[in-house]
Amino acid sequence: MRSSRSDVANQIKQALTMQEVVEQYGFSPNRSGYIQCPFHAGDDHGSLKIYPDNRGWHCFGCNAGGSIIDFTMRLFDIGFQQAVIRLDMDFNLGLTQAKRTSKAEQSAILEARRQKTEQKAAFEQEYRKKAAEFRYWWEITKHFAPAPGADVLHPFYAEALWRLSILEYWLDENIGR
Ligand SMILES: [Zn+2]
């Protein structure tokens, strides 16, 4: 008799602790059971709490949380069934039949994910900086706007118009990236 998918998932949840799972994937919980959250950027102090046995995890920084299977799904960007197979293979539980993922493949996936998170954080920082510059030059245009009928533009006003056009183009191109 073959086990159904949810039976296997339950067996895996019974067989593994959250701590074993995070350690398998390269995290070291501190003495209070926290690790740096891989699901939001810049978590230097470790906001992700690991609960004992199979009681799962919760991040107090980004509010993500769930079971060991949820953690594995999110960490590797994979679906429920793939996460079940992955945990089964990585811990040699023998509950499913699939090829084991090598340590090298695992670390390549984790490294790619880390880079993606870093790039996203760097981009968001750049976007905020450009938006702040835009507001600055927008204020300048208000301060140095030519009086009605003036035939010479203040050099700050002319510069602000030029910079605003460039910034507006960049912000339009990158919004929602
Ligand atoms: Zn988080």
Brief sketch in words of this structure:
The protein has 177 residues and is mostly helical.
Describe what you observe in this structure:
The chain is mainly alpha-helical and 177 residues long. It folds into two domains: 5-101, DNA Primase, Chain A (Alpha-Beta Complex), CATH 3.90.580.10; 116-174. 56% of the residues lie in helices and 6% in strands. It contains six helices and four strands; from the N terminus they run ααββββαααα. It has helices at 5-15, 18-24, 68-76, 80-90, 103-143, 155-174; strands spanning 34-35, 48-50, 57-59, 65-66. Strands 1-2-3-4 form a four-stranded antiparallel sheet, covered by helices on one side. α1 packs across α4 (80-90) and α3 crosses α4 (80-90). The mean pLDDT is 87.
Order of helices and strands: HHEEEEHHHH
| CATH superfamily membership of the largest domain | Zinc finger, CHC2-typedomain
* The number of domains: 2
Which ions, cofactors or small ligands are bound in this entry?
zinc ion
**How would you classify the helix and strand content by structural class?**
mainly alpha
Low-confidence stretches: none
Query: Which sequence of strands runs across the widest sheet?
Result: 1-2-3-4
Number of helices: 6
Q: What is the CATH architecture descriptor of the largest domain?
A: Alpha-Beta Complex
Overall number of strands = 4
